[in-house]
Amino acid sequence: MLPEFELFEPRDLQEAVALLTELGERARPLAGGTDLIVEMREGRTRPGYLVDIKGLEELKGVTVSGGLIVIGALTTLRALERSAIIREKLPILYDAVSQMGSVQIRGRGTIGGNLCNAHASADGTAALLASGARLRLHGPKGSREIALEDFFSSTHKTVLNAGEVLTHIHLSIGSRGCGGAYSKYTVRKAMEPALVGVGVFLETEQDGAVCRAARIALATTGPRPERAVRAEETLRGQRLSEELFARAGEAAAGEANVGSNWRTPEDYARHLIKVLLPEVARRAWARARYEGRNIS
Amino acid sequence: MKERSVTLRINGEIHVFNHVSVRKTLVQLIRDEAGLTGTKEGCGEGDCGTCTVLLNGQPVNSCLVLATEADGKEVLTVEGLSREWDLHPLQQAFVEEGAVQCGFCIPGMLLAAKALLDENPSPTEAEIRAAIAGNLCRCTGYVRIVQAIKSAAVSLSSPPLTAATGKGPGI
Amino acid sequence: MEALVGKPVTRVDALEKVSGAAVFGPDVKLVGMLYGKALRSPHAHARIVSINLDAVRKLPGVRAVVTGADMPGVLGGEAVKDMPFLAQGKVRYMGEPVAAVAAEDEATALKAIELIEVVYDELPVAADALAALEKGAPLIHEGLENYARISVIKPVPKSNVITVNEYSKGDVEQGFQESDEVFEDEFRSQTVHHAPLEPHSAVAQVDVSGRIVVWGPNDSPHRLRKDLADALHMRLDRVRVVSTYVGGGFGGKGGLKAEPIAVALALKANHRPVKVVFTREEVFQATLVRHAAVVRIKTGVKRDGTLMAREVKIVWDTGAYAEKGPTVCSQATAAAAGPYRVPHVHLIGQCVYTNKAVAGAYRGYGTPQLAWAYESQMDIIAKKLGIDPLDLRLRNILREGDVNPVGHPVHSVGVEDCLKQVAQAIGWQERQHHPRVTEKGRHVGFGIACGTKNTKTPSGSEAALYLCQDGSLTIVTASVEVGQGVRTILAQIACGVLGLPMENVSFSQPDTDSTPFDASTTSSRTTFHMGNAVKFAAEDLKKQLAQLAASLFGCDVNQVVVDGGKAWLSEQPERSLTYPELLQKQYGAGASMMGRGFYYPKSEQGKAFHESPSLFWMYAAHAVQVEVDPKTGRVEVTRLAAAADTGRAINPVNCLQQIEGGAVHAIGTTLMEELIVDKQGRMVNPNFHDYRIPTAMDAPEILASLVEAPHREGPFGAKGMAEIVTTSVFPAIGNAIEDAVGVRIRDLPIRSDKVWRALRESKEK
């Protein structure tokens, strides 16, 4: 049995926002429940009110419109895994979601929930961070859009104001020469959050030989999801090569915000970043050069 | 609201429950209210899969679904796999291939397997293992479970000449 | 006659289990049932200053509240009576139950425990065994020498050592003198959990005469009955235990777990049944764990690889209460030198209390931690002497009639064949031709190991068989179906002897009121002990049927043949009568026939529990192929060959099922499992997301085979094997990693960061 709470089931976004605003801090939106219900069971959170937003159909689904991929925040990880749009146009996200949890978890967990829980180890978050995602938030004062990297404030916290709901995630469909990939290191082959995860998104030119821009995101056991900006600088404007990827790996390993914890000692976490990044970058590069064809 | 009535179809039959607390999860509704104890609760946190049921055809950890959410929906539990004395080919295969030891993971495993075969009638071994990755088993090492699912996939795609029956004890 | 023995008969309980009809502990439901919940200590070591129950007693819906103070003088424990049902005076581990409530529903019970106020006075914590051994360490059980205990337990006063057990043969110092090389190594094993999928539970009810009934997934109803009756100072017949199916035990579902809380509440619940179901967190924190162990092993060898002397010193971390810790120490320490001929041996085990979860019976009963040590060291020896690891083992391996390290001649010894079979299956002789590095840059390695385990001796089992007038058979035993297939095996034996088809068999539920005494469903003893009891009972039935036939045929009983469901005069086989016909002819108004069998091995030294040399020894071997990623230190087992000596495989598929499950279980223990406890005694990962057991994607290719070295006293030559199937996996993997990348990890689990670190350090040298 879960701890005591009162349940609300708003029928549309406006009602949801109104409820969350009115109920304030003691209310939590309930999407897939794969994180929230576990937190409640473990006594880590005791919300007095749950606002079940799963009825908000307008927040579900993946579409392409005007050069943008639009993902509804309530789209399940499984739906993303099976979406032809995601597999073809955003394989970095496919990489991330297809390795999360189990079939049962992916069928319930939503990408919005993944982002809003603000765990540094969240695979979906890292993949989207590397992809340059922008978020649409809707609250009592209306809508606003922010970059994903501006979404996280401190440990497990986002910048969502009272009553605000994450509604959509926007990504521009990469132009020619773009490609991204995500991989993580875990102990078991399933059912594991990342010990270390790396997402790399490359924008290349000159037929894939030169890096115009790079976005690198790390999933770690640290406090927040983050971009590895020094590693990105290592790649920007350079001719891509294995050797360059290795240097980027070292840079990322050095700048990552990880400490030692029971899951992994700090030096090992940094080492994993160092060796994982070149592998992921290599795949991203292959996708950038052979864009349009599914490279696994 | 703190409670509400829930009307749902379980294994094809309509059940009406009044005064269902919102704190109850679907696995509790199935086990305690509907009295169908085939579905198990091994962890309550979605890590072990023993509570797997099909909710509107989709495999879910019923320990993470609020009971009230099941209102108006269809649930398939292990009890709904067989018809009278006739076992579902998956159940038959699990028996014949020796996939059952302590049995506690089996109901959830069967439902996860059914969900897989419903969507992918000829899965590879890798696809089978990925489909049941969320169903932990401590006894079998998964060896004969995977074999059984493969065998059931074959039976389902080529119906047998006689119906597999569980009638009678033991064997 | 033995038509069914040796056949891969389908499991008789499989149908119930695939239908969801099988009743496990949490499925038990009784009219008027209350829900019980425990309040647990947040401290690992503290005095209980006060418990305030005023608020909880006033909460509507609460029907019983109980604390340790309600049960003065109640102490339980099979080997040592040191454990109260609810904490008394002090708490000794984080999670120890301090109070409990029974309420009309779960919500009320959850609310109720929050209303109980406990004031603690914290005490210093001894969070690991070596610290608990130090001078000045906090004493966890003062006056431990005063606890009632069985004779093999030898506590050390004014310490945290509940027992020391020692075995000697020859003169180890002399042996080391005569050796060409002496090796000294230390190996450590971590605390792990059985992690059964079914959580622990119990339903208890006290009737109006004060008789206690307990239903639940307990592996040993007669043992539980005795544990409860002894603790409560009651007569055995005033307690009844009924066991359901068990959803995975591996040793963790015996003795006092959820049962004491349910019983404590039931005693105050006005005759209403009380159900207690543990959460997964409670299962991890407050049921049972496996002993962490520090094993120091010193071995002397001749240059040609002959083992001369072996000294093994073990510190067993037994947690806050004894449970089966002391007998793990006494029994496993005797197996610490491995399945080898060693003339000079000294083995000594210390069982040490710590302020952590209780350690006790866990598949292998201490032998996995020992094999990790002796089989890792064998490879160290092999490498130094330049001898192939398989050859070194074969040079010293025990064979039929040899004297084992504790001085007993051994019988039914299949370990040599186990080694040869796994070597063959994995391609041991050809391994030098195998590419050393894969396409992806992973390093390939091969490792081999063997192991042995004893069984608790003596112990007894009794069985009854009811032959009904229509020829159907009911098997009446207290052996519990924990997933090992016991019902199927016993049916095969009974039907095999009587010549009846398996379809005509049903089973009683284990119930101390009606199923006769069985020591326990543990120690891999059931096929042997209860198998014999059932065999004797079937033979008893056959004798009675022969006598009945003789009186009906009017002949001497020696002229009657009973087989295949029929009886006939030996000269007139065509004039046969089936069993139902025999009964009908004599007892036209109806009757049944009861066969009885009791098996209790002859023992040499004493008759008491655990005092005798092991009735049989189990053996197994494993050979693995691993790939190690030198960049990350990640280890993957790609192929695993396993062979176990089962004496005689009553049901070969049953045996293979154990081997397969054991292999994956052991891979979890070796590579991914660890219960992490911090310095304050807090368990950091008591759940299935942070305590990782292998998923279907983590299981390798398993090449399983059986060896049969028949045991003269086992039913049809069978002995046990359920616990030997993990023992040699750990060192086989450790040895394979050393073969692959040249580093040896000495403390389990073999996490990838340890391998990485070892590789880095070896490169720096």
Greatest interface and its participating residue counts: B-C, 58 and 62 residues
Spans of chain A of at least 5 consecutive residues whose pLDDT stays below 50 are: none
Helix content class of chain A: 25-40%
Largest sheet of chain C: 7 strands, mixed
Give, in spatial order, the strands making up the sheet with the most strands of chain C: 3-5-1-12-9-10-11
Q: How large a portion of the residues of chain C is in β-strands, by DSSP E?
A: 15-25%
Q: What is the CATH homologous superfamily assignment of the largest domain in chain C?
A: Aldehyde oxidase/xanthine dehydrogenase, molybdopterin binding domain
Count of β-strands of chain C: 26
Poorly predicted spans of chain C:
none
CATH architecture label of the largest domain in chain C: 2-Layer Sandwich
Give helix % range of chain C: 25-40%
Span of the ends, CA to CA of chain C: 67 Å
Summing up helix and strand content along with how strands pair, one would put the structural category of chain C as alpha+beta
State Rg of chain A. 19 Å
Secondary structural class of chain A: alpha+beta
**Backbone CA Rg of chain C:** 27 Å
> What is the CATH fold-level name of the largest domain in chain C?
Aldehyde Oxidoreductase, domain 4
**Number of DSSP-assigned strands of chain A:** 12
Largest sheet of chain A: 5 strands, antiparallel
N-to-C SSE series of chain A?
EHEHEEEHHHHHHEEEEEEEHHH
Ends apart, CA distance between termini of chain A? 42 Å
Describe this structure in words.
The complex is a heterotrimer of chains A (296), B (171) and C (765). In chain A, the strands form 3 sheets. In chain A, strands 4-5-8-6-7 form a 5-stranded antiparallel beta sheet. Chain A has a 4-stranded antiparallel beta sheet with strand order 9-10-11-12. A 3-stranded parallel beta sheet of chain A has the order 1-3-2, with helices on one face. In chain A, a hairpin with a 6-residue loop joins strand 11 and strand 12. The mean pLDDT of chain A is 94. Chain A has 296 residues and is an alpha+beta fold. Chain A is built from 11 helices and 12 strands. Chain B is α+β, with helices and mostly antiparallel strands. Chain B folds into 2 domains: 78 residues, Ubiquitin-like (UB roll); 77 residues, Orthogonal Bundle (DNA polymerase, domain 1), CATH 1.10.150.120. In chain B, 30% of the residues lie in helices and 16% in strands. Chain B is built from 5 helices and 5 strands. Chain B has a 5-stranded mixed beta sheet with strand order 2-1-5-3-4, sandwiched between helices. In chain B, helix 2 crosses helix 5. Chain B starts with a strand and ends in a 14-residue tail after the last helix. In chain B, 62% of the residues are buried. The C terminus of chain B is likely disordered. In chain C, 27% of the residues lie in helices and 24% in strands. In chain C, strand 21 and strand 22 form a beta hairpin. In chain C, helix 10 runs parallel beside helix 18 and helix 16 packs across helix 18. Chain C starts with 13 loop residues before the first helix and ends with a helix. With 765 residues, chain C is an alpha+beta fold. A 7-stranded mixed beta sheet of chain C has the order 3-5-1-12-9-10-11, with helices on both faces. In chain C, strands 7-15-14-13-8 form a 5-stranded mixed beta sheet. Classes of the chains: A alpha+beta (296), B alpha+beta (171), C alpha+beta (765). Chains B and C meet through helix 2, helix 3, helix 4 and helix 5 of B and helix 1 and helix 16 of C.
